[in-house]
Amino acid sequence: MTTPSAECVEEKTAVEKTADDHTAKHSYKRDPSQRVFVGRNLRMEKIRFFGFDMDYTLAHYKSPDYEIMLFNRTIEKMISMGYPEDMRKFTYDINFPVRGLWFDQLYGNLLKVDGFGNILTGLHGFRVLKPHEIDEFYPNKFLHLIHNRVIVLNTLFQLSDTCILANLVHYFDSDPNYKPTVDKTGVRQGDVFMSYKSIAQDLQAATNTVHNDGEMKRHVLENLEKYVVKDERIKPLLNLLRKNGSRTFLLTNSEYYYTNGIMRYLIGEDWTSYFDISVVDAKKPQWFAEGTVFRQVDVATGSSKIGVHTGPLQNNQVYAGGSCDAFRVMCKVRGKEVLYIGDHIFGDVLRSKKARGWRTFLVVPELEHELTIWTERHGLFEQLAALEANIGKMYKNLDGTADNKCQSMINDSVMAIRKVTHEMDQAYGKIGSLFRSGSRTTFFASQIGSLFRSGSRTTFFASQVERYADIYASSCYNLIYYPVFYFFRAPMMLMPHESTVDHCTLMKKSKSSKRNHAKAAEANSLPTQTSFCHEEEDDDPVSEEETRVGSPSTSDSEAITAITPLDKSFSDPTGTQSPA
Ligand SMILES: [Mg+2]
Predict the structure, then answer these.
(1) How many Cβ atoms sit within 10 Å of the Cβ of residue 13?
(2) Burial classification of residue 320, based on how many CB atoms lie within 10 Å of its CB (0-12 exposed, 13-18 middle, 19 or more buried)
(3) 161 labeled part of a ligand binding site
(4) What is the DSSP letter of 491?
(5) How far apart are alpha carbons 263 and 103 in whole angstroms?
(6) Strand, coil or helix: 514
(7) Is residue 411 domain-shared with residue 276, that is, in the same domain?
(8) SS3 letters across 170-221
(9) Paired strand residues for 338
(10) How many other β-carbons are positioned within 10 Å of the β-carbon of residue 122?
């Protein structure tokens, strides 16, 4: 018979053993904050050109100071357009905005959706939409990504816009001078009707002015220490990447005067010597399509020289505009030999990959916070997994004879999952702001949750990262922790039939399984494969198709058709290009 103390010893040993196994399994991995995560295999030694965006990539802006500055300046522009002075009372809540939300201009709702447009959470102003409201607004809890209805708030520059939109809808809905219209598409004051769409359009106009009139950028240049993170790893990283003969280039939408100010602060007066090619005012995503005139910049005056630059691109020179085609011809480089590093899912990553076949590295600064919650609140994720496993167990032995009692038990578990999901979403925000009560669960309305997930479901933003980013990390400087010959390997992705059937499961034998066994035996007689890796190898010389102007690199062009018009319109304050 085992004594209680012996049981404790045995139990402790088992726990320790599990911990040891876990440690052994993960001991080869780097510190999470220094890691680069892999969506598709990428061999660093095959990259000949490392390209960098500047804003929010090489130059990271200090949060929340930078967002608050954008928030206040945009509000001032809107007041100057005739919006109420009360807008000055709006405050930027750092815990409120999360990237990737959709703003439905028809009904004025902020929506968190999954990769298919299914609605996960909805807010009207700061008020969380109740399930029946979502049903009324959006039958099937689904919304199409329609260009003239939905604005995707995908960029870091749009965090302040997200906050202003919620403030504006909340303000006009709460102000007794304004009455919501019966069709719920806006508010009315006497004869004046303001649709939510017109409010969003005015906000876009104000944001464009802030980004383009130069005042905001001059203010940043005058206060660099306040707004820009000076990362000492910038020189070592750029030197490291060029160590084996690879080249580096800067490709930014910012104008020369602004780029020069930021890069001098980060690197020094000789910043151009750290890049083989420097391109400013690129006008991405247009740069990856038809582009504009390629001109050399007169660094003494900051203005572009007349005429079109046609010769080879030279070190220490700065160019403006141009196009991917001109760049490819001048540098004699194939798309897959370029790794472009940027923070803009559409302007940097989606376009360069889909239109040009570049390899892509997406910078997602929020990752550090996301990983902190993932690790510190792991108990919630384990609870969720246990609840889902429990439902699986209940379903396992049910068939057509199951009664209402069984269904009720399952419904209870579903509600428990929703509760944990809400708790998980809260964990990604900070306690405070607005409450909602009166429903089954109480949670903070201002906390929309994670950038990547809502409970066990992933978001629209996450689906874009999975689809278009070969690798991603919280900072481009994480590359410094890897050798230049590193092989980034994507983790094996399992299909549902693989992830839910254990290897040790005993399958009932059937005729087809006997046939499969025969095939397996035949396969085993073949020479052993030296590698299980399924990297797409291609060392062929440049094909005619690759050198053809504008040749798409993938076949699923329907996806870009669906996303292009939308992202192009709002990810870009100018309406034609991304802000950085
Ligand atoms: Mg950028």
Answers:
(1) 10
(2) buried
(3) no
(4) P
(5) 34
(6) helix
(7) no
(8) HHHHHCCCCEECCCCCEEEECCEEEEHHHHHHHHHHHHHHHHHCCHHHHHHH
(9) 49
(10) 26
Do residue 359 and residue 385 come from a single domain? no
- Is 311 inside a domain boundary? yes
Out of 348, 363, 378, pick the residue that ends a domain. Answer: 363
- Domain assignment of residue 118, given as a range: 64-224
Together in a domain, 187 and 217? yes
Question: Residue 157's closest CA among 83, 209, 207?
Answer: 207
Token digits of residue 349 = 């990553």
- For residues 255 and 580, the answer to whether their CB atoms sit within 8 Å is no
Output the CA 309–ligand 1 centroid distance in Å: 25
SS3 at position 129: coil
- Rounded CA-CA distance 195/207 in Å is 19
| Dist. CA 440 → ligand 1 center (Å) | 41
Same domain flag for 336 and 397: no
Domain end, chosen from 183, 208, 224, is at 224
CATH of residue 243's domain is 3.40.50.1000
In which region does residue 324 sit, left (phi positive, over 0), alpha (psi from -120 to 50) or beta (all else)? alpha
Look at residue 525 in the predicted model and tell me its pLDDT.
54
Q: Is 572 annotated as a binding residue?
A: no
Residue 495, pLDDT score = 80
Predicted confidence at residue 576, as pLDDT, reads: 35
pLDDT digits 0-9 by tens, 119-138: 988 999 999 899 999 999 99
pLDDT for residue 519: 63
> Which residues are part of the catalytic machinery?
53, 55
Q: Do 268 and 185 fall into the same domain?
A: no
| Total domain count, the chain | 3
Instruction: Determine if residue 425 is labeled as part of a ligand binding site.
Output: no
Identify whether 527 is part of a domain. no
Question: In the chain, which stretches have pLDDT less than 70?
Answer: 1-28, 429-456, 506-580
Contact 451, 100 (CB under 8 A): yes
Buried b (16+ CB within 10 A) or exposed e, 334-350: bbbbbbbbbbbbbbbbb
Q: Identify each DSSP E strand in 220-348 by its residue range.
A: 228-229, 247-251, 277-280, 294-296, 318-321, 338-342
Domain contains 5: no
And the tokens for 559?
């996806």
Residue 78: inside a domain: yes
- pTM exceeds 0.90: no
Tokens at residue 208, please?
A: 């464009």
The answer to whether residues 391 and 416 touch, using CB atoms and an 8 Å cutoff, is no
For residues 76 and 219, membership in a common domain is answered with yes
Q: Give distance in angstroms: CA of 193 to centre of ligand 1.
A: 37
Is 90 in the same domain as 213?
yes
Distance between Cα 346 and ligand 1 center (Å):
10
Domain co-membership, 423 together with 293: no
**H or E element, residue 498:** helix 496-499
Tens digits of per-residue pLDDT, 379-428?
887 888 888 888 888 888 888 887 888 888 888 888 888 888 777 777 77
Distance 285 CA to ligand 1 centre (A): 12
Distance 32 CA to ligand 1 centre (A): 23
Instruction: Tell me what pLDDT residue 474 has.
Output: 94
Q: For residue 397, give both structure tokens.
A: 């032995």
Name the average pLDDT for the chain. Answer: 80
